[in-house]
UniProtKB/TrEMBL annotation:
Residues 62-71 have a biased composition (Basic residues). This is Uncharacterized protein. Residues 42-71 are annotated as: Disordered. It comes from the Eukaryota. The lineage of its organism: Eukaryota, Metazoa, Ecdysozoa, Arthropoda, Hexapoda.
Length: 71
């Protein structure tokens, strides 16, 4: 087993701050991707809840366009 050099339990505030900043930089892309996934899920849920009459018409959906013309 390799012996790791013992670190003092209480790091100097400056070192601790640097470590925190480094950790934040490393976690940033992960956080961004997670929030993107969550937002997509929320959007999907919202779209399911909204009845088609209230939902904005999508030009690709022909049925939607026809029903709007009748109104």
């Amino acid at each position: 087993m390799m012996m790791m050099p013992k670190q003092p339990l209480l790091l100097t505030p400056m070192k601790r701050l640097k470590q925190l900043l480094l950790l934040l930089l490393l976690l940033q892309p992960l956080y961004k991707s997670l929030t993107a996934v969550v937002m997509k899920r929320r959007k999907r849920k919202y779209e399911k809840r909204v009845p088609p009459t209230l939902a904005p018409p999508s030009p690709s959906n022909k049925r939607n366009r026809k029903s709007l013309k009748k109104l």
